[in-house]
Design brief:
It is built from four helices and five strands; from the N terminus they run E-H-E-H-E-H-E-E-H. The protein is of the alpha/beta class. The chain is globular.
Length: 104
């Protein structure tokens, strides 16, 4: 599955079904750049168990403010459109796998 880049307009559709890991990020954010390859690797290993969606907070301020995003990267986990978990800051792949699996 490919990583989806969501906008304010597409966000609710992008998270509507299944388990979705949403990465709130920005182009100028150092830790966001560090986590990007981890998310790409994770995406190829999930085999459809969860979808990864990225939201650029500078371009999509409405969505970022709706979920109270104060620090980036913030990763929110959604299940069928509802937020179920949250983690802030860089996370190693193993921690993200565990984060997703506890809600699978």
């Amino acid at each position: 599955m490919a990583i989806v880049y969501a906008t304010d307009a597409s966000f609710s559709n992008d998270i509507a079904e299944g388990l979705v890991l949403v990465d709130f990020w920005a182009t100028w954010c150092g830790p966001c750049k560090m986590i990007a390859p981890v998310l790409e690797e994770l995406d190829s290993e999930l085999n459809g168990a969860a979808k990864i969606v990225k939201v650029d907070v500078d371009q999509n301020q409405e969505t970022a403010s709706k979920f109270g995003i104060m620090s980036i990267p913030t990763l929110l986990l959604f299940k069928d459109g509802e937020p179920v978990d949250k983690t802030v800051g860089f996370q190693p792949k193993e921690a993200l796998v565990e984060f997703i699996q506890k809600h699978a």
